[in-house]
Amino acid sequence: MSKTIKKIAVLTSGGDSPGMNAAIRSVVRTCAYHQIECVGIYRGYQGMIEGDFIPMGPRTVHNIINKGGTILKSARSKEFMTSEGRKKAYDQLQKAGVEGFVVIGGDGSFTGAEIFNKEFQFPVMGIPGTIDNDIFGTSHTLGYDTALNTVIDCIDKIRDTASSHNRLFFVEVMGRDAGHIALNAGIGGGAEEILIPEEELGLERLLESLKKSKASGKSSSIVVIAEGDKIGKNVFELKDYVEANLPEYEIRVSVLGHMQRGGAPSCYDRVLASRLGVKAVECLLEGKSNFMVGMLNDKVTITPLLQAIKGESEIDRELLRVAEIMSV
Amino acid sequence: MSKTIKKIAVLTSGGDSPGMNAAIRSVVRTCAYHQIECVGIYRGYQGMIEGDFIPMGPRTVHNIINKGGTILKSARSKEFMTSEGRKKAYDQLQKAGVEGFVVIGGDGSFTGAEIFNKEFQFPVMGIPGTIDNDIFGTSHTLGYDTALNTVIDCIDKIRDTASSHNRLFFVEVMGRDAGHIALNAGIGGGAEEILIPEEELGLERLLESLKKSKASGKSSSIVVIAEGDKIGKNVFELKDYVEANLPEYEIRVSVLGHMQRGGAPSCYDRVLASRLGVKAVECLLEGKSNFMVGMLNDKVTITPLLQAIKGESEIDRELLRVAEIMSV
Amino acid sequence: MSKTIKKIAVLTSGGDSPGMNAAIRSVVRTCAYHQIECVGIYRGYQGMIEGDFIPMGPRTVHNIINKGGTILKSARSKEFMTSEGRKKAYDQLQKAGVEGFVVIGGDGSFTGAEIFNKEFQFPVMGIPGTIDNDIFGTSHTLGYDTALNTVIDCIDKIRDTASSHNRLFFVEVMGRDAGHIALNAGIGGGAEEILIPEEELGLERLLESLKKSKASGKSSSIVVIAEGDKIGKNVFELKDYVEANLPEYEIRVSVLGHMQRGGAPSCYDRVLASRLGVKAVECLLEGKSNFMVGMLNDKVTITPLLQAIKGESEIDRELLRVAEIMSV
Amino acid sequence: MSKTIKKIAVLTSGGDSPGMNAAIRSVVRTCAYHQIECVGIYRGYQGMIEGDFIPMGPRTVHNIINKGGTILKSARSKEFMTSEGRKKAYDQLQKAGVEGFVVIGGDGSFTGAEIFNKEFQFPVMGIPGTIDNDIFGTSHTLGYDTALNTVIDCIDKIRDTASSHNRLFFVEVMGRDAGHIALNAGIGGGAEEILIPEEELGLERLLESLKKSKASGKSSSIVVIAEGDKIGKNVFELKDYVEANLPEYEIRVSVLGHMQRGGAPSCYDRVLASRLGVKAVECLLEGKSNFMVGMLNDKVTITPLLQAIKGESEIDRELLRVAEIMSV
């Protein structure tokens, strides 16, 4: 491995997700393993612009593999969207002797990295970190598996208390544009209905289904709803609509919100973070740049950043069928 | 112990709570220990009216101590509020040879039992089962401790992701009339502000406090809000109001809902359930009736049902002071 | 889909694992979806021999998706290893009108199914259920992902308290012949050393590594040890050996044991179970037999039972390298 | 409140326990609330001797309420047991302007504080922090409630898999001299037998009980064993003994170990820590010294340190009876 690169930076950007700390740890330790320097950048691209750097070694990432959030903080930076902002960032990296960076984040963060790479021929690598799993080129993004477990833990608790007659529970989960969480956590939670952005279920079909569900002897039902579902109503409007049309049901709503972004990462997310961090650093050391690392077919792979940004992470249509069969 | 009573019934009534199954198990096994019969009544007083009974022995309550919900189901019964309904229930109990019952539930359930006892001189005992902890005569109701742990687990996850600037998180918890959950889980979750029904905090004071909180260097804050808080706005109206007045804050809302009523009971709730079940049965065997069993001063005690119904379970005012100090 | 088959049986066999109930539920509901009958067989092959069957419909598998263990119980059957035993089992299935079965279990259970299929041309399908992940033809067995999360949860707790000087923690995990759990949970738990059956680390190297670990500034270390590691000592003998050679260390031992086989299944395991159950039933309906369903390359696949039995499920060697880098 | 004291120190000492961080946070914030200074002392009394101090303000204890372990580290100090060591510690405190300290720990830590107070008339207060709950003068020590929940979570998982025939599970829990954990977690976990140091159950009675348990139709049993039980065998010797005498049983052992000391504290422990921290600081400000703060009869109380050290924290004998009834 040609170690032309002597110093690598790592940053987290955009919304945080469980596993980001494990990925930071992996980048830092892989640098140490290959005896190159590593600096952490606080607050994403904004911290890059402001030169908010900190040297990191194997001991500074001690005991963070199991922590949610990100010790480097995260932020969105409008300034980095301007060429002036990016020039400042470049100057800061130059001043600090940084010769490549690994950004952990989502689509937006990758777009920034991709432009930066083009403008300054600066080596960059991306690690997909978002609970939404809406990134092309990887079967799993960091935090997705953890978020699924958080959601089903909530649904399990609701199920415990769902024994009374005629109760309907609406659980709103994250996923403004992507139904991965709702679909998988809906199946995993044993939901009777799942509403996702990718599918036009239609209100009529939902009502039909709820009627049928009741006729089949179910005394209570749980409906998982992605916040960005196609029906175009928020969960409380949906509650009003269904109660107006199915007066025999009393509906209770849970809005899970940001708890889905926190918590100790699952084992899957930690191992994934560890693997992707190793790969990202070693790509830079091998002279590769402008790729996102990910998992495909159970193997660590790389995908050009541009492709990762432009491609679509589609839901597995087979799961729609599984969901339908399971709610028979 | 005079065993004039030969058969005892047990039922769960009203909203369910974690620990009810553990209490059912305890009643059943205490009966077996004293070699008297035990029957379970399904669906609360409604099942009593309909004679929906099942004989229960030590093995039928195997492996339920750790389960949320109630294997006997629970329901509210309008019919039991009429003297005709209660007469039917009495006839069913007579027919089945039941000579006393233990009801696990809240205020409403105890009121039913108290009236029934008066009307038919029928031996009854109450076990306080509700997550709200709003029952006089016991420091803890079944499920309260579990609910607190559920809430702080959610708040912990939100805290993980609360590192970005200027974020405010509103977490709505249960407690329509009582702030026990909000106050204790607010302290336990490290909330910056806690809004409870018992206190007129006032919107102005909330705004002041949030401004001060920010000035003191906190980049994010978590506010725990009981669903029945005195401010008279629901959590989304509150969000709109605060955002209008403190435009520098972006507010995210979580509505925990019924997950607070589910989940495996905590060790405290299981031990409590076991102790109260023993006491309830042994009171009946000793000829006592019309009491609620509870914990006071770390000891199992009994309180006349009427007193338990009429008394008020006040929040510990000292905790308001602790909460204030903790959010310095 | 030709529905020549009218009745399918499902059983769990061998050691249980989280997700088995979710798989039972899936088999039952898929049968219902395709309007064919389904019977559950209690206690594995022994129950098959004894005709311990129960008809199952969509509602009988209500609320089991989140339960550990198996509602059908599991057992090992010596009698089924004899041709007399298998003949009895065949007669029972015939008598009950069962025309194919799905067995959820491991290698041993598949071997039984494979022989049975040969002897009686009886349609069988296998679903891999074991926490050890030691089955060829699938990237994940049911329960493996859950067990990993259970183990890292324990390691996280140990890590909390590992702050004092010179403490060494040995954590023994399951895996008599396969190091999947130790390797992945070791990486996920941030263990300093991982001992697995597949690798001859050697005691000398362990001692070296622990010395180096200390020299590098780590005040405490966690070592994850598979019960079947190559060193040939049990965890307490290993403790004595290391303490004798590295007297500066005080060693504390945790033996996790069977808790690794229990607990609510993770979302991954529940979705996996749901998908595999659908596939297993639909294979039988399509006239396929003698296959194991599994996940490979993120897709549901089938593998001939014989191949699944004879093949080896190797650990991912790349993970050994990741583990080494992470403990730098 | 007379604020003659201007600066208070806080330290954690002895074995750590969940809730220690919450108590540190409370001490620090209560100081800030009363506008006095606060310093943290690292590594217990050893750090006091070495002057390993750090100034602490409300923001330095941000986000630690939910963390296991102790951010101030803990250690045992032989030097502090000598008068020379204590003199050094006193000089360090004087140099730093510290006028009183709060020590969070167990019996040993209190003994040190008590002697120190006598020798130098130095104001000290103790907060009981240990999972064992073996301290006189408080119904709960910090970490005890959390440890109970950790143990029953493990037992629940074991129970899931305990469905096969003739399996016996031995679970060893902490408690060298005190059976509080074993007794309460045994009841909460639904254990069939509980072995604690305070009771001479005797091996014969254990064998009898296991035989009876089986005869009563239980197919599997869980036995919770405190590490310091009176039988004088370790858990593996006990396994060998029982298997030799009851060959029909196959015994599986779990040794939970230090995981019992870690984990996010329960809500109870966090609220307790917050209350005790406030009281400890305010006692010092009121000129009180040499007391332990604790909870008795649901109220915060103070007990002279000497009494806390010499008194015995007995198990609640009523619970032995409850345990017996529950395993009917």
TrEMBL record, chains A, B, C, D:
GO terms for cellular component: 6-phosphofructokinase complex. One of its GO terms (molecular function) is identical protein binding. The active site is at 132 (proton acceptor). It comes from the Bacteria. It is found in: Cytoplasm. Mg(2+) binds at residue 107. Gene3D superfamilies: 3.40.50.450, Phosphofructokinase domain (3.40.50.460). Pfam families: PFK. Substrate binds at residues 130-132, 167, 174-176, 227, 252, 258-261. ATP binds at residues 15, 76-77, 106-109. Residues 7-284 form the Phosphofructokinase domain. Belongs to the phosphofructokinase type A (PFKA) family. ATP-dependent PFK group I subfamily. Prokaryotic clade 'B1' sub-subfamily. Catalyzes the phosphorylation of D-fructose 6-phosphate to fructose 1,6-bisphosphate by ATP, the first committing step of glycolysis. Homotetramer. PANTHER family: ATP-DEPENDENT 6-PHOSPHOFRUCTOKINASE, PHOSPHOFRUCTOKINASE. This is ATP-dependent 6-phosphofructokinase. The lineage of its organism: Bacteria, Pseudomonadati, Bacteroidota, Flavobacteriia, Flavobacteriales. The gene is pfkA.
